[in-house]
Amino acid sequence: MVTVFLRWTWLRAVLHNGWWLVTSVYLVVDAGLSPAELVLIGSVQSAFALVFEVPAGVIADTISRKWSLVVSQALMGTAMLATGLFTSFPALLATQVLWGISWTFASGSDVALITDELNEPGRINLVLTRAARAQLTGAATGLVLLGLLAWATRRDVTIVIAGAAMAALGLYVALRFTEHNFVPIRTARWSSSWTTFRRGVTLVRRSRAILLIFAATFLVNGASDAAGRLTQKQLLDLGLPGAPDPIVWFTALGVAGLVVGAVVLRLVTQRINGAHAATDYALAALAGVLAMLMLAFARDPVTGAIAVVLLNGIVTPLTRVISTIWVNARTTADIRATTHSFLAQLEYLGEIVCGVTISAIARLTTLPLALTACAVLFAATAVLMSPRNRRSVRAGRDL
After folding, report:
1. Which one-letter DSSP state was computed for residue 184?
2. pLDDT tier at 190 (50, 70, 90 boundaries)?
3. Which of 129, 154, 292, 344 is the most exposed place for a label (fewest CB within 10 A)?
């Protein structure tokens, strides 16, 4: 099951990241969206995902983790495919909302499923770290393959092909995934779902460690999402060459960041599973401060490109895998997907609150000032995860 899970993780990363590379350029170049519209899409998408996240997690904990993933793949593929069919802002907003909802059926379900099926607490952190590396190598492969396809054909055609393949990947989940160690609730599902939700809330309220990582996730994800949606616009404004095609340059930058991320995760695998997790999270946030300031005040596209590699290679992968392992180690099997859904809700809430704020800054002032605001959010995260808060982290270990 570990091999099947890692292979699926890799394939999904190939399609998702390759699709987003092409889509991010498509939204700017073909659809002509403004910086404010780009961030607004992320905020509205997150608002819908925020509403669907907990019900989707409860469904995974009461009915099936495997079939939640199948539903996710079907919705995701549909949204991805439809994106390539439109260029108007309202239509693209609708496709991105559906795309966000599709992830709510996967977030937490995948980690909960492999944790239960493996049934080896001593190995699960290693497997999750391997899955994070698989995501990075798969993402790099997707950037190259779909980037080349978009360059050789058209961006909208590539987007449609990636969406169709993502929907088809649901068949792989349906046929190859097992669910032997999960017992669905067949009677009184509504009351059981409510009980599962309340138990998840109780666990979070009593764990200072989980509350700490939730707060950090809110800040760092709000900064990362807004920055990720503004990166292409800033690099193009800095004079990124338009020939042979912008997609070629963004592919190269994406691959470079993912390679750096895979190496970093390889080096810190043991650290992020132990007492150094909080320190590593704080250091990653500081790297985010540096990256955002470099990108905001860059004089040329080379400096901006280095900042993007720093953001994608260190900040995003480290904070994501640390938060996932952190929460997974402090929850129980019967509410595992629900607790991970709470974590995802904080990600979406960060995207909404911080995204709307940064969108307003981009609209009322300049793009460099909006990126500076992202740096401020990363700085607040570093302070939150500083050594003075380690006592709060340790307080959650006896759960």
Report:
1. -
2. low
3. 154
C-alpha angle 172-178-179 in degrees, rounded to nearest 5: 135
CA 216/CA 266 separation, integer angstroms: 23
Residues 6+ apart with CB under 8 A from 248: 147, 151
Backbone region of residue 183 per phi and psi (left: phi > 0; alpha: psi in -120 to 50; beta: other values): beta
Peptide bond preceding 35: is omega within 30 degrees of 0, i.e. cis?
A: no
Residue 388: which pLDDT band, with cuts at 50, 70 and 90? low
Measured CA to CA, the distance from residue 45 to residue 40 in angstroms comes to 8
Give the span between the Cα atoms of 326 and 210, in whole angstroms.
8
109: nearest Cα among 55, 163, 162? 55
Helical residues (DSSP H) of the chain, grouped into ranges: 2-25, 35-62, 65-83, 89-104, 109-118, 121-152, 155-176, 189-206, 208-237, 246-267, 277-296, 301-310, 316-328, 336-364, 367-384, 390-395
Angle between helices 65-83 and 89-104 (to 10 degrees): 170
pLDDT, tens digit (0-9, with 9 covering 90-100), for 21-39 = 899 889 988 998 887 788 7
| Among 145, 148, 104, residue whose Cα is nearest residue 11 | 145
> What's the confidence (pLDDT) of residue 242?
61
Dihedral sign, CA of 246, 140, 373, 342? positive
91-126 b/e with 16+ CB inside 10 Å = b? ebbbbbbbbbbbbbbbbbbbbbbbbbbbeeeeebbe
Whole-angstrom distance, CA of residue 302 vs CA of residue 297: 12
Q: Greatest CA span in the chain, whole angstroms?
A: 63
